[in-house]
Amino acid sequence: MTTEPTPTPAPKSMDAIMALCKRRGFIFQASDIYGGINGFWDYGPLGAQMKKNLREAWWQDMILNPAWGQKGPNGERVKCVPVETRIIQHPKVWEASGHVGGFNDPMVDDKETKQRFRADHLRGLYTTSIPSEEMTSAVSAVVSSTANPKVNIVPRATVIASTEGEAVEAIKDKKLQKLLGIRSIDEPFTPFPEMSFWRGKVNFGKGTESVTLEVVPIETLKAHASTVPSPFTGKPGHLTEPRQFNLMFSTYIGATATEDDKAYLRPETAQGVFLQFKNVVDSTRVRIPFGIGNTGTSFRNEVTPRNFTFRSREFEQAELEFFCHPSESVEWYKFWRDFRMNWWKSIGLAGDNLILREHDKDELSHYSQGTSDVEYRFPFTSPGFGELEGIAHRGDYDLTQHQKHSGTKLDYFDTTRGERLPNGSKKGERYIPHCIEPAAGLDRGVLALLCEAYTVDASRPSPELLKLHPRIAPIKAAVFPLMDKDGMPEVAEKLYDELFAKFGKTGFIEMDAKQSIGKRYARMDEAGCPFCFTIDQETLTAQTVTVRDRDTGKQERIGLDKVGAYLGEKLGA
Ligand code: GAP
Predict the structure, then answer these.
(1) Whose CA is closest to atom 16 on ligand 1?
(2) Of the residues 163, 249, 500, 566, which has the maximum number of CB atoms within 10 A of its CB?
(3) In the CATH scheme, what is the homologous superfamily, with its name and number, of domain 14-90+266-451?
(4) Burial class of residue 275 (count of CB atoms within 10 Å of its CB; 0-12, 13-18, 19+)
(5) Atom 1 (ligand 1): residue with closest C-alpha?
(6) Measured in angstroms, how far is the CA atom of residue 317 from the centroid of ligand 1?
(7) Overall average pLDDT of the 540-561 stretch
(8) pLDDT tens readout for residues 163-180
(9) Is the bond into 289 cis (omega within 30 degrees of 0)?
């Protein structure tokens, strides 16, 4: 029985979101005046403040008041401490962690154009004349043979994309259509229920043909590198076989720059925590179970950085390594998985665009008893989802590896365990703690929040607005004198000073007296400012101001002396 695919709303325009980000100073291409540098992005004034707000929300809810003060599975308040570790560590760290040997992506080159992409991002566009009932067997046939005469599937063209949704979007591009020989898309591509391929109807010039869009598995590409058409030239035989490419950036320490001086830029912040686990236990009063958080820049030499900041070569992570007794680890894993999902919801990602995806058993590393991803439906992955945060049960893998490679004991003596001694104390138990790791990406977080907040309301004179959560919004409030007369600017200035003193630490407070009030509201809506306070004639007589809600456009009057309390309550500050 086939099930109807769940209808999803049309994705928002990434071009429009990127244009707004540049226009309003959220995100700029790094080295923009030199033409940019692929995979690197800078934040402008609003973006830098927004990202800081996200980082601080994480710090507040994961370190200072972890899990909002909830009790963990052990019945006690969750405890966490921070560290700040370096980007460059001893090169042996990355051998121990497995990054030197195993942190690879399969890479394919176009021999003619020298362009490079990830083999596992390759999607194929195939023409087929098979009736839909036979599709299931046909697709398994294409995996084993791209030239199976029985099912009559022939590779026609290829598109680089990391998800089918992205490939479907790419095919709508007129330039790409020309390259692929597509005259028109007669029936849009839709997901085939419960299968990882899409079907649509396309005209290549000889009438409408049914077409499937399917991942080219790496093995197939190896076997058929000569027949799969290059996504860049459309010609078969132009692709190299996939080769493994290590994602770590390397550098040299000191002036001599020999192989002995080679070091790596960290590909994750997590390892810094494992390296300092013993020092943290020895220097503080934290006892198992507890977490150590680490935020900072990580680097991955991604083969194909793409989708705005989603896959960058330099990005920021916020990772918590939570250490616990092995017998309690599954409970803690579930605790953090659920909390992290709720946390993203609390800052504005609630709704159908956010899901928690539990990995299947065969996706897990041998040491893991569970991994879940918090995934967001980005416009470029829609109707599919992209990873925002991974929550992994890492067992004792990392501490064991570093103990082995460094020769330093990293076990933990737990005085609360073991049999009771005659003097009433416990005998104690020595073990390597298990680790639960909620690993979030702050740049992906900013991107997801921007995509979710981006709204087009055609009924407004300036239709684009950002419905950012007040905690995340870079501008917290704006004060407008309606007119430049009758003492309104002076009252506005006073209110601005008050709000600045109270909330200036949480984000920008703006004062705007230029142009019409409608234009000022529109400017603030587009920047995601949640509240605008306007000083008008009535303020002068009745000591009240209007407060306008960005999302509804509705206005209400509140007392001038109540504005601080009103904003404080809304910002949770
Ligand atoms: N310590 C585990 C770890 O690093 P990961 O899933 O590779 O796990 C965690 O990374 C998070 O870091 C991801 O969920 C994502 O938000 C972010 N991230 C990873 N690679 C990224 C990239 N190239 N660009 C932007 N963010 C990235």
Answers:
(1) 441
(2) 163
(3) Bira Bifunctional Protein; Domain 2 (3.30.930.10)
(4) buried
(5) 270
(6) 7
(7) 96
(8) 777 788 888 888 778 777
(9) yes
Ligand 1: which residue has its CA nearest to atom 19? Answer: 441
Of 23, 8, 5, 6, nearest to 454 (Cα)?
23
Is the Cβ atom of 538 under 6 angstroms away from ligand 1? no
Q: What is the pLDDT of residues 273-311, one digit of tens each?
A: 999 999 999 999 999 999 999 999 999 999 888 899 999
Residue 124: is its pLDDT beyond 90?
Answer: no
Determine the straight-line distance between the first and last CA of the chain, rounded to whole angstroms: 53
Q: Select 461-571's CATH number: 3.40.50.720, 3.40.50.800, 3.20.20.100, 3.10.20.90.
A: 3.40.50.800
Q: What average pLDDT does range 229-240 have in this prediction?
A: 80
Band (467; pLDDT cuts 50, 70, 90)? very high
Which residue of 105, 274, 387 sits with most ligand 1 atoms within 8 Å of its CB, as the best mutation to test the pocket? 387
Which residues have a Cβ under 8 Å from the Cβ of 318 and sit 6 or more positions away?
55, 58, 59, 62, 269, 293, 294, 295, 440, 441, 442
Q: What is the pLDDT of residue 214?
A: 75
Per-chain mean pLDDT for the chain: 89
Q: Where are the domains of the chain?
A: 14-90+266-451, 104-245, 461-571
Ligand 1 pocket: which of 310, 315, 436 to mutate (most atoms within 8 A of CB): 315
**CB of residue 311 inside a 6 A radius of ligand 1:** yes
Angle at 106 between CA 104 and CA 112, to 5 degrees: 135
CB of 444 closer than 6 angstroms to any ligand 1 atom: yes
User: Cα of 380 to ligand 1 centre, how many Å?
Assistant: 17
Length of the chain: 573
C-alpha pair distances (Å), 418 with each of 206, 424, 436, 474: 77, 12, 23, 51
From the CB of 246, is ligand 1 less than 6 Å away? no
536 lines ligand 1 (CB under 6 A): no
Q: For the chain, how big is the Rg over CA atoms in Å?
A: 28
Q: Is 438 in the pocket of ligand 1 (CB under 6 A)?
A: no
How many beta carbons lie within 10 A of that of residue 535, not counting itself? 28
Please give the pLDDT value at position 112. 87
pLDDT over threshold 80, residue 157: no
